[in-house]
Queue: 2 jobs
Job 1
Amino acid sequence: MSTHLNKIVATTRETVAANKARVPVSELERRAALHRPRGWANALSVRSACGPAVIAELKKASPSKGLIRADFNVEHLARQYETSGAAALSVLTDEPYFQGSLRNLELASAAVAIPCLRKDFTIDEYQIVEARAHRGDAILLIAAALTSEEMHRFTHTAHAIDLDVLIEVHTGEELDRVLALDEAPDAIGVNNRNLKTFAVRLETSLELAVRIPADVVRVAESGIATAADMVRLREAGFDAFLIGESLMRQPDPGAALSTLLAEAVSSIPVLHESAQ
């Protein structure tokens, strides 16, 4: 685990401990029962069958880039993304490093019909119940931050309460561990950002694509900014594309997403022909 990730995970443990002291799991379970998960991975599969499936991310800031978007009306952005063709949303809930919150997840999810991923550093089962209690439909597990036993246990816990699981890898070794799990995730994401240097290489996804089974949703993450990027990754076998910063930096993220999707569809001959 990188030094930076170690620091974030340590902070997350403190946050979880504070949340546990403030809100008992029984209260979370009561709230969770009020939300019916909407099938995050299935939404991506359905959209991917007829065109690029974009997971539009609500991301205000990051440790490496600082503040990304000052004008951050969560409900407005979520609706913009849905109207502009996003298949699903990803909502950052880490506060210390990404200026996110569980409230943002709740607001975004309530504003749209498309399903939402809680994007955070999951290190405790409490956070999984917390995700559904705040209207999340899926959780993120980061292989670099977890043991194989933790990934298996957290996947099982999420599935038991009808949440989908996206496991994120950065290397072939991490992918090996995910593929060896007894209980498979619903989606496997390849993050093109190097955790140690923060450098982004789309080649990371391209190199690992062939090894990801076809029976899980294959997600490319980070560094996707153009239709050409999406076409290249789709041709390599990816079903969905998690896009955050490049959209968040646009004056009108929804319009930027619409343009990106239109350009991608027109660049894929099979999709273009079927649309005629």
Job 2
Amino acid sequence: MLRVLVVFGTRPEAIKMAPLIGEMRRHPDRFHCRVAVTAQHREMLDQVLQLFQIAPDHDLDIMRPGQSLFDITRRALAGLEQVIKRERPDLVLVHGDTTTTFVAALAAFYFQIPVGHVEAGLRTGDKYSPFPEEINRHLTAVLADLHFAPTASARDNLLREGINPEKIFVTGNTVIDALLATVKADYRFADPVLAGIDFQCRRVLLVTTHRRENLGEPMREIYLALRDIVALYPDVEVVFPVHRNPAVREVVQEILGRSPRVHLIEPLPYQDFVNLMNRCYLVLTDSGGLQEEAPALGKPVLVLRNTTERPEAVRAGTVRLVGTTREAVFKETRLLLEDAARYRQMAEAVNPYGDGQASRRICQALLYCFGLGDKPPEPFK
């Protein structure tokens, strides 16, 4: 039996680790799976834990008002020292690019315990974009022993950095596993704003922004473009779950607070959010994960950033990198609202990020690497 300690701290990590935890727990004769959360995000994390019925074995509860990256790093490292000392797992499994990810890998290294990195190999090439995620990815890759790359491009990034090819497995992304298990054709929204939208007659733009590098003038430009779009198209509505960061909320309210057909709502539980994404017309976001999720539902994505660590989506044509200027965001949104062929080309492009089997592949790879399985998984293509 393989003793695995899964560590995460934010809502996106929880979403992407949930199907993997579920897969391990379906095989209790092969895996002894324990879960530790730092809770560097609290409320949003708890929604996902409840949805996927995950009760953490260790909850560090480190989130504090106004916390800095220094605070998160210090408290997470101290807490994980005690967790790992108690659990003594065969492997510590981390996900993606958060501060929790890097710190958990570092803590495991201090105990000389192997690290498995899920969603490994994503790169933009700019150490400050996204910040601090890009460097967290690099640092975690240096510390990791097993690398679960979602795509062949991510694998190639790792190979260029000198990672042993025998330690890299192309698995697809676990977020597609979670997504496909959660979207329901007959889903009913409890939120009265969402329940009141006529998705058949309205073209709904789903918008999210939260990146540190977009705070300030870039966000102002994005929101002004959205205001222009709504004013031009009477059948367009915007649903904008607003991030809790006060620096985001202040500018959103200033520019969009009085705009007709713009719904500024609280961050949604994951189940509501993905079912909203399934019914929207178009996604505008600076998120990384939505570049993977929305195309799986046939939704074009306009990425409100100047760089992306998911170039596969750009090459596949499922997303378009548009930057943050008012002119560019307005122009690209308008093109998809007016050019049906262009919209259809993006909506029908093949999503390069997964087939819903990533968790199974990762578990098979773990068993193989620890001598508990006969063969490695077939790579996702």
